[in-house]
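User: I'm new to structure prediction. If I give you an amino acid sequence, what do you actually give back? Let's try with this one:
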Amino acid sequence: MRHAVTFSLLTSFAAAGASAADGVAFFESKVRPLLVKHCYECHSQESGKRKGGLLLDRKEGWQIGGDAGAALIPGNPGNSLLMHSVSYQDDKLQMPPKSKLSPQDIRILEQWISMGAPDPRNEALGEVVKKKTIDFETARQGWAFRPLQNTPLPAVKQKDWPRKDLDAFILAELEAKGLTPAADADRRTLMRRLSYDLTGLPPSSDLSDKSDVSAYVDKLINSPQFGEKWGRHWLDLVRYADSNGGDRNYTFYQAWRYRNYVIDAFNHDKSFYQFIREQIAGDLMPAKTSDQRRSQMIASTFLALGPKMLTERDKEKLHLDTADEQIDTIGRAFLGLTIGCARCHDHKFDPFSQQDYYALAGFFRSTEVVMGTRNGCVNVASWVEQALPQPEPAMSDLVHKVERLELAMRLKVERDFMRKVGGKMSLEKLPLAGVICDEADAELVGDWKQSSLSKNRFGDFYIHDDKKGKGEKQAVFRGTLPENGVYEVRLAYPAKTNCDKHVPITVEAFDGVHEIVFDQTKKPSIGGLFEPIGRFHFEKGGRVNVIVRTEGTKDYVIVDAVQFISERDIEREATALAMVNGKGTGDPLLTMQSEDLTKELGKQINELKDADLAMAPRDARDAGDIHLRVRGEVGQLGPKIARTYPSVLFRGAPPKIAPGSSGRLQLASWMTSEENALLDRVIVNRLWAQLFGRGIVSTVDNFGVQGEKPTHPVLLDHLAAKFRASGGSFKTLIREMVLSRTYQLAAEAKSPRTVADPENR
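Assistant: Good question. You get back a string of structure tokens that encode the predicted 3D arrangement of the chain. For your 761 residues, that looks like this:
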């Protein structure tokens, strides 16, 4: 491993204890001239440019860093963004952009960072260019983010007027302003108001002016229409629809199950906290019965709802856009905040950093809700569906059908790809495509010759070095993988006796840089076309580079294609190869051509429309922390951010999440904990808004700086504390509100009160 050796030498140098004076001398003689020549043009105050938010003309500049965070980590060049960019490891983050630094200059920077990055340039950043930092400690004192303040009931003069605690808070405010309450509504008006507010329906005709209000409220709250009325409000909040509504408006055949779940939750007064936990992580929660398991899986449909750009070709962008939509919905519906605004930069108004956003995004990028293809359309993604609990053998049969549907979706994509790019590729040669980069995708250095003489090739052509310019040529393949994991890397080439036996190949992976010497006279073992180079661990968004070079060779070096195939698929590939050669058995899908797969897909989708399935998500196979995206661009990787909760609402260490898990269970637990008082304030305010026409906070979806402040903050906290104490009972709080004297007052078109308080605050 070339870099590993270099790094060990450099760390030994650092460990030898170069003096501070030696470090400064090294910086002044080697590093400063390099930075002035190659970096100051775009990253200095003198030039007036601060591209990417980064200054490199002073120490504080690289310490604070730019849009992606600190530019380097003293003593750790391997994890320093500066080294990543100057090494040209990512084709979307290459500095300097005009031309790559020489190997000698790169070694100077690497050595400097290994020494601890000594830098005598102590000029402070000007206030204009200093990156604004968020004062979370101060932000936590804001009315929305502090713990619930449950204060005693205020003293009032009209002691016999309040019927419920909330009445005392309202009356105290009126008396403080020299106002008196309105008169009570007449009984018929009140009954009508209650019926519409609680069930959405007009009152029955048999009501009389002598009907007991409390008993009538109980009757309405316990009617089936209560859940339908209040469930509808929730469904609007969480963007419920029976179809995708995006670029491809496909029907969500199983969405109705979530609608019914919500209605049942309100009718049975399910704890609000359990209600939230099930929607975030119901598919992962333990269950005592199959009915409970069924309900929890259906609840998690919440994450799969919402419009998605199913035709997005960049699947990583699709996954991140899906996570963004989930974060935005949870932020607004659960927390009353526009957290999604921090995807590209720190929130402009509220105390949410870009790091906070990607800490949350890690939970949802680690959750799979879209995959595969739909209706045989190669570029159209589908949504995940899972079998609901049922007796055997029906359960196993349904699970098998869903798995076959997903396999058919994947194979359809691969067959069409091979037919389009691979020329006359046959199943006998390549039953599974994995990820393939053709020679046309490679970045070429030097003069390579194109050829099609050999029929055993991938695509229309391959290239060779013509045995000239040895050491001057290389072909760089940069792969994009769908998920983290171990992949077998294979090289395609037409084997010839006049090819070289010692072709140098470099594989840059997550687990290091690997140097391989490859024999191109050997006949490829995979369909006579691809030969394995080795198995390596890669991470999506990280280094996935294969470099074929010519130095040290004498004969022909041929470059055709590079394949990355997941370690999990190798056994399935062997089965398919045996089947097409009549030497094995397996799923017939493995040997179907594209046209047959299209027909099979349509058949399977129709068959499963009415099956006992839920649009339930699942943890992704490559679940884990994700990289911050500089300016929100998918390919611009910043540092990896640990999954955790928003800093303004949480002070502790990141949660411990098992490898391969999304962490949604931990997120659901924190979201509903007493520590998160914002959740209680937001839902109580929503209930108040539905019953009184306006929230205590009028901007019900925005409790941030751009939203309105509460008109009665003490009352809001009092109700939120009572709601928490009740275990999150919707019916208990709604009952208290509608039986309050405040709710039962008459409406006034004009009075001294409307003049003094025209907005009824």
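You can read the tokens as a compact description of the fold. Here is one thing that stands out. The two ends are 70 Å apart (CA to CA).
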